[in-house]
Hints:
Chain A has helices at 3-19, 22-31, 38-44, 49-61, 83-102; strands at 36-37, 65-70, 73-78. Chain A is of the alpha+beta class and 105 residues long. In chain A, strands 1-3-2 form a three-stranded antiparallel sheet. In chain A, helix 2 crosses helix 4 (49-61). Chain A binds chain B through residues 1, 5-6, 9-13, 15-17, 19-23, 25-26, 29, 44-46, 62-64, 66, 79-80, 82-83, 85-94, 96-97, 100, and chain B through 1, 5-6, 9-13, 15-17, 19-26, 29, 44-46, 62-64, 66, 79-80, 82-83, 85-94, 96-97, 100. The first copy, chain A, binds a DNA duplex (30 and 30 nucleotides) through helix 3 and helix 4.
Amino acid sequence: MNPKEKRQYEARAKVLKALAHPTRLWIARQLSDGEHCVCEFVDAVDVDFSTISKHLTVLKEAGIVESEKRGKQVFYRLKIPCLLKFMECVDAVILAQIESQSEFL
Amino acid sequence: MNPKEKRQYEARAKVLKALAHPTRLWIARQLSDGEHCVCEFVDAVDVDFSTISKHLTVLKEAGIVESEKRGKQVFYRLKIPCLLKFMECVDAVILAQIESQSEFL
DNA sequence: TTCTTTTTTGGCAAAATAACCAAATGTTTT
DNA sequence: AAAACATTTGGTTATTTTGCCAAAAAAGAA
C-alpha cells in the first residue's frame, strides 16, 4: 500500500465510519426519502438532541448530507443517491451470514 | 425506531464498522480479485502480523470474508460479490465532496 | 426587549478500538 | 523429537468515539 493508496483508503474509511453507527445509518435512510428537519429525528430516536446534532455533523463532514437553515429549523438532505443500493449490499452480507450459520443445524 | 428496526440498524452498522478501517477496506478490496493468504497482507502492509490477523477476524465475524487453512497458511476469500459496487458509492461521496469544496474557488 | 423554540458547541466520563509485544497454537520440515 | 514457519490469542496502553449535561447561538413570537 503506497502513500497515495493509503490516503485513498483513509478517505474511504472516513465515509464508511460516518455511516457505521446505527443512529447515523438510520438518519441517512430516512433522508433517502427526502429532506427532514433535526426536530423530526429528535422525536423519533430516544437520545438527547445534542447527540442527534453531533451525529448530523459527522454525516455532514463526511459529505453524506448537506443542511439548510430555514427559520428556526435546520433541514438536512442526502447528497448521495446510491445510499439504498449501498444498504442493499450490507443487507446481503447479513443475509449470507444468517444462511451460513443455519447450515450447521 | 422500534426495537426490531433498532436491531436491524445495529446489525448493519456492525458490517459497516468492519469495513470502516483503511487496512480492512484495503484487504477486502484485495480479496475481490480472488483469495489471498495472510502472509501476503503482512508483506504488503506495514503493521504487525498480529494486527493483520485481528483485522481479518473482524471481517470474518462480520460475515464479509471466510477463511480456509491449507498447510501452514490460512487463505481468505470475500463472501460478498457486491463489494466493488459498494466502494463505487463511497468513491462517489468523496468525489461529490471534492467538487462541492472546489465550488468556492 | 424578553421569552421561547431549535440547534450547535464545549466539556466530561464511560466504552470501544487499534496497535504493539509476547506467548501459544497448529503445521511442516529436518 | 526439535526447529522453523504461519497465524492467532492474551495483555497492555494510547487514542477515538459515544452520549449526556449545561451553556451558547440564532431565529421567531410575545
